[in-house]
Specification:
Length: 94
Amino acid sequence: VGSEVPEKRICMSLRTQPLPVNRIKTYIIQEGFMKAVIFFTKRGLKICADPEASWVRAAVKTVDNRSSARRSMTEPNPMGTQRSTSTAATLSGQ
């Protein structure tokens, strides 16, 4: 069924039922004697899951895409600055 992870971030068992992706805030990958993906929920729970399970791979991909979409929205567009400089040069006749 899966267990909440103690502070040491060591999984004792793996969740077999899918976790709704909208409840997942982030994740880490645990290596070692028991490989696992540890999902951190928006409520602060830590859930261990089998990294080979298809629902886990899909959830990881969704979280990664969500994170990269947020990053690209907050980064300034370097091309925007170049366009405005170019426009100014055109208006001044240079």
